[in-house]
Amino acid sequence: MAGVTQPKVSRVALPELVTWAQSGRIRVPQFQRSYRWDAEDAERLFDSVFRGYPIGNLLMWRKPAPAAEISLGELRFKAPERSDALWVVDGQQRLTTLIGALTASEDTVDRRFRIFYDLRDKKFVSATHSKQSADHWLPVWVAGDNRRLLAWQRERNWLTDEDFDLCDAVATAIRTYEIPTYEIEGDDEQALREIFDRMNTFGKTLKRAEIFQALHSAPLDVQPSNLEALRERLRALEFGDFTSQILMQSVMALRGGKVDRDFRQEFKDDEDLHSAFSATEKALRLVVDFLKEDAGIPHLRLLPYALFVPVLARFAHLFGRPTGRAAELLRRWIWRGSAVGAAPQGNTVALRRNASAIENDPVASAARLLELLPPGGDQWQPDLSQTALNRAQAKINVLGLLSAHPVLLNDVPDMEGTLHLRGTRIERTRLLAEVLDSGSSPLSPVVGLSDRSVSNRMVHPGLTGTEAALLPFADPEALRSHCVDDQCMNFLLSGDLDEFLRRRSEVVRQVIAGHVQKMALWGFSDGPAPENLFSEDLWGDPDAA
Q1: What are residue 371's phi and psi, to 5 degrees?
Q2: Cys bridge to 300: 240, 320, 506, 521, which one at CB 3.0-4.6 A?
Q3: What pTM, to 2 d.p., does this model score?
Q4: Distance in angstroms (rounded) separating the CA atoms of residues 492 and 195
Q5: How far apart are CA 19 and CA 59, in angstroms?
Q6: pLDDT at residue 205 above 60?
Q7: Is cis: bond before 442, omega within 30 of 0?
Q8: Phi-psi category of 495—alpha, beta or left, where left has phi over 0 and alpha has psi -120 to 50?
Q9: Mean pLDDT, residues 397-415 taken together
């Protein structure tokens, strides 16, 4: 054993970190969940940089690295072999966030890298890919580049002197902020572990065993070259674990033709395979963003039909992320199909027909998907008996309950030890995803009766057994977020549990049915947007006289 050298201590500026990443010098091993931060963590990190606050240290292990196609955040490139590569032992969350945001662009999908400085509210904010950023939001990837910043400012002749000063302050902070870095060289892993244990960390740390196992494991964080690698990369989206079948169908849907043809004979060579998997990953990132932000589906286990994924992947590959009228129609297709059954002819036939409907024009493609659905949706009503998440109607019930934005009735810690306080909207915590990832149900009983319907269930991770004792002490607004209105509470306080459940079933049914109608819009025109029906060809040019 050569041991471990005394740590080389230095300070590295953010632009230099970006240069290291783009040259392939920084290597991040393949962790099971390689990137755990959310958008609020990223906003807080850049706020600390702006204020000059310490954000912790980086611990790097200097050792050789082979040539590889690697990624860091949404930065993708081919890295050459390096004898002086720096493997990240501690600080991966910060480093990924900084590099991901500073190398982002308007096309970046992951909200955690779409970080802006709001010149009006004087704070860092993030935005989803589907949200148009405000004109007074300065992207951090622009602030980090002087030429781009000057161009951005020239396009906004309304900027005040104060705005210019703020832009300059953000840009200066990003370009001059330095992070203390400890660089270790050697092969004495025990010494390296001890150094790791003694270092202070910032944010949500990984267990040291997880880190050191990853440092010695293979493969590296490469571009996906098989279904398992593709699944691994998509886990970072915190949308759940895609099955091999969904991923295989998505790959085939992008390439066109019969989606159920022989996957094993599909690719001409390794280059063709790598290109297909890379394109599929990009498309699925757009699909997940659309499902979360437009369709209101926060997790894969709550998606009523799996065939939505490969069909949407084909759409995203051909036309980009759904927007405008196409997004509206696709949302109707998902929710109507969830209610009435998106695969009346069976999954294979339905997948083939739906994927084939995506071609030529985004709006026309979405309209064709709606035409493939069976009729009768306008008569649909919730089935409150369904609570098992292997049934589409149960998933609709959970999504309906979530539409009321339920809040925590008590303080609940997540798996990483972060305490989420009473009154926090459950959808803004990691709790729901953790429960769904584990294969458990997010539904908890309300009162201790044998009733197993949704009338006696609420979406509230972290509760055990009967939780009726919490209800009388909860804020009325918090209770309404769980479909418990004043009448329900009066029955509960009087001890009339049967009437409580009867009344709550009415409220729950109304909430679920209202949410499904809002998303599905039965009875509305499914053609082009109304404004597109009035064209010059129909009415003539009013100025031509």
Answers
A1: -70, -20
A2: 240
A3: 0.71
A4: 57
A5: 18
A6: no
A7: no
A8: left
A9: 91
| CA distances (Å), origin 260, targets 41, 250, 302, 375, 402 | 41, 10, 24, 26, 34
Q: Distance (Å, rounded) from C-alpha 294 to C-alpha 129?
A: 11
Please give the structure tokens belonging to residue 444: 């908890």
> What tens digit of pLDDT does each residue of 358-386 get?
999 999 999 999 999 988 888 899 999 99
CA distance 467 to 489: 14
What single string gives the DSSP state of each residue in 286-333? HHHHHHHHTS---SGGG-S-TTHHHHHHHHHHHH-S--HHHHHHHHHH
Q: Which tokens is 344 given?
A: 């009346």
Q: Give the three-class secondary structure for 238.
A: coil
Report the amino acid identity of residue 428: R
342's tokens: 């998106």
Structure tokens at 420: 């989420």
pLDDT at 242: 93
In angstroms, the Cα distances linking 264 to 70, 99, 242, 281 are 25, 37, 19, 19
pLDDT digits (tens, 9 = 90+) for 230-271: 888 788 788 999 998 899 899 999 998 888 777 777 888 878
In the chain, the amino acid numbered 165 is: D
pLDDT of residue 535 exceeding 50: no
More confident call, 301 vs 77:
301
How many whole angstroms separate alpha carbon 516 and alpha carbon 526?
16
Q: d(Cα 506, Cα 485) in Å, to the nearest integer? A: 11
DSSP-assigned states of every residue in 155-211? T-TT--HHHHHHHHHHHHHHHH-EEEEEEEEBS-HHHHHHHHHHS---SSPPPHHHH
Q: Using an 8 Å Cβ cutoff, are 55 and 48 in contact?
A: yes
Amino acid identity at 387: T
Residues 6+ apart with CB under 8 A from 486: 476
Answer whether 348's CB lies under 8 Å from 307's CB: no
Separation between Cα atoms, residue 72 and residue 74, nearest integer Å: 6
Band of the pLDDT at 209, cuts 50, 70, 90? very low
pLDDT at 492: 85
Quickly list H helices, 294-427: 308-319, 324-340, 347-356, 362-371, 392-402
pLDDT tens figures, 517-529:
999 999 998 877 6
Which one, of 319, 318, 307, lies nearest residue 254 by Cα? 318
Comparing 190-194, 325-329, 470-474, the range with the smallest average pLDDT is 190-194
